[in-house]
Amino acid sequence: MRLNATRVRAIVRKELQDYRRNRSIVMTMAVMPVAFVALPIASIFSLPAAAASATLDRRIGLSLLYMLLIPTIVPAAIAAASVAGEREQGTLEPVLTTPIQREEFLLAKGLAAFIPAVLISYGAFAVFLVAVELFAHRTIATAVFHNSALPAQALFTPLLAAWSIWSGIAISARSSDVRTAQQLSIFASLPPLGVVSLLSFNVIQPTLTLAVGLALPLLVIDLVGWRVAAVMFDRERLVTGTRS
Questions:
Q1: pLDDT tens digit sequence for 173-193
Q2: Are 70 and 120 in contact (CB under 8 A)?
Q3: Residue 79 · residue 186 · CB < 8 Å
Q4: Kindly report the CA angle at 175 between 171 and 180, in degrees rounded to 5?
Q5: Which residue, 166, 162, 154, 158, is CA-closest to 211?
Q6: Nearest C-alpha neighbor of 82 from the set 241, 244, 192, 229
Q7: Alpha-carbon distance 114 to 118, whole Å?
Q8: Spatial CB neighbours of 62, under 8 Å, sequence gap ≥ 6
Q9: HEC-encoded secondary structure of the chain
Q10: For the residues 54-75, what does the mean pLDDT come to?
Q11: Which residues contact 110 (CB under 8 A, 6 or more apart)?
Q12: What are the Cα distances from residue 130, in Å, to 136, 144, 157, 228?
C-alpha cells in the first residue's frame, strides 16, 4: 500500500482550518490545558519548603500525572469528532467519494489531531516547569527538576496522544453522535495512564531504561491502532448511511 502524501496534507490542512471555526474544539484546546496545568502549579506552590521527601515525591508525581491528562483527553475529544462531526455536518460523504484511500484519510485525521494536541501538551508542560523554576521555593524546584519521572513525562506525551486519537477515530467511525463518541473516546483513552501512574508515584521505580521499555510496546500498539481503525472504518456504510 502506497500513501499519497499530497492527499494526506490536503486533509490535514482542511482539518486544521476547520478547527478554528469549531467553537467546541477551540474551547477544548484552550480551556482544558489551562485547568490541567493550573492545578499542578497550585499544588506545587502550596508545598512548604520543609515538606517530607515522601510527601514531596507524591505531590510531584500527582502533578506530572495530572498534566498527562492533556495529551490523553484533548486529542480524544478532537478525534471523536473527526468522523461523527463530519457526518452531522454532511461534509463526510463528498470526501469519501474522492479517490482518497481510507488509510490516507485516517492518517490525515490522526495527524490533524496529533499535531495541536502534542504542541499544546508540551507547551503546558513547559509553562509548568518555567513557573516552578521562577516562583517555587528553590528546594521544591530542585526536587521537581530532579524527579526521575520527568523524562517519562516527555516520552509518554506523544504516545498517549496517539493512543487516544486512534481510539477516538475508531469510535467516531461507528458513532453518529459527536457527544457520545467523545464520552466513549475519553473513557477508552484512560487505560494507559494506569501504567504511567505507577511510574509517577514511584510504585515502579522510574528509570530511563524502564520508561523506554514501556514506551516501545505502546508505540507498537499505536501503530497497530491505525490499522485497526482502518478495519473498523466502513466506507460504504458511512457514505450510504446503512448499517454493516
A1: 777 788 888 888 888 888 877
A2: yes
A3: no
A4: 85
A5: 154
A6: 229
A7: 6
A8: 40, 43, 200, 201
A9: CCCCHHHHHHHHHHHHHHHHHCHHHHHHHHHHHHHHHHHHHHHHHCCCCCCCHHHHHHHHHHHHHHHCCHHHHHHHHHHHHHHHHHHHHCCHHHHHCCCCCHHHHHHHHHHHHHHHHHHHHHHHHHHHHHHHHHHCCHHHHHHHHCCCCHHHHHHHHHHHHHHHHHHHHHHHHCCCCHHHHHHHHHHHHCCHHHHHHHHHCCCCCCCHHHHHHHHHHHHHHHHHHHHHHHHHCCHHHHHHCCCC
A10: 84
A11: 79, 162, 165, 166, 169, 226, 229
A12: 10, 11, 18, 39
**Higher pLDDT residue, 203 or 230?**
230
Q: Over the stretch 112-162, which tens digit does the pLDDT of each residue have?
A: 999 999 999 999 999 999 999 999 888 889 988 887 778 878 888 999 999
Q: Contact 213/156 with Cβ under 8 angstroms?
A: no
Instruction: Give the C-alpha separation, 126 to 67, whole Å.
Output: 11
pLDDT at 201: 66
CB atoms within 10 A of CB 201: 17
Which has the higher per-residue pLDDT, 30 or 239?
30
- Which residue matches cell numbers 490541567? 36
* Residues making up the chain, counted from first to last: 244
Name which of 55, 95, 87 is nearest 172 in CA terms. Answer: 87
